[in-house]
Amino acid sequence: MAAAEMLRITDLHSFYGESHILHGVDLQVGRGEVVALLGRNGAGRTTLLKSIMGLVGRRTGRIVVNGRETIDMPTHRIAALGLGYCPEERAIFSTLSCEENLMLPPVLRGGGFSVEDVYGMFPNLRERRASQGTRLSGGEQQMLAIGRILRTGAQLLLLDEISEGLAPVIVIALDACIRSLKDRGYTIILVEQNFEFAAGLADRVYVMENGRIAESLRANELEAKAGLVQRYLGV
User: Fold this and answer.
1) Where are the domains of the chain?
2) CATH 3.40.50.300 fits 1-82+156-165+188-235, yes or no
3) At what angle do helices 168-183 and 138-151 cross, to 10 degrees?
4) What is the SS3 assignment for 159?
5) What is the pTM of this model?
6) How many beta carbons lie within 10 A of that of residue 7, not counting itself?
7) Distance between CA 176 and CA 173 in Å, rounded?
8) Separation between Cα atoms, residue 218 and residue 235, nearest integer Å
9) Exposed / middle / buried, residue 182 (Cβ in 10 Å: 0-12, 13-18, 19+)
10) 53 touches 79 (CB < 8 A)
11) What is the pLDDT of residues 153-207, one digit of tens each?
12) Beta bridge partners of 64
């Protein structure tokens, strides 16, 4: 995998103040892969995404993005390397319209989606382009949050619980979105509680527990080890 690596994390420890959250995480993501991070709430999955983006108090270890060491970089420089983070809370600006929210992030790299490209992937947003951001449905807000990071030119997407609380028809649309992005060569890390959604998309799965990687599985191993994963998820 070395020649095709997009991300390598080695012995990563992350802290919020005095709280030690990640304990020696090792993880690799190949270019063009979809990788899922599974685990119970509090396992450290969101902290791992924030650590990749430099959004935690302190990090030690190594994080190499496309051959560049980023452990000491500020967040804006990490983003400029082609990373896009879609947080669980979506962070839609209530005073801006759907289209104004979409236009807000700067274009950091070439090759990003145009507004029309976003509307082509998410036709609902075209219909709601003038609507206030927080008047969109939960599913439309999630589409908007993903569309915003696609506008920046990011090629490594960090997506946190994008299916949570959404109607099945919206989850199906998001599944199609992820498949389309993978076909275009994007590299995607999904934090998910929805095992079926993640398993249907992921090339590989990392299961986290207590701030560590507990299991690493390839897609062709998931069916045989579904019981093991479900025990980690506590369902």
Assistant:
1) 1-82+156-165+188-235
2) yes
3) 10
4) strand
5) 0.93
6) 22
7) 5
8) 21
9) middle
10) yes
11) 999 999 999 999 899 999 999 999 999 999 999 999 999 988 889 989 999 999 9
12) 8, 69
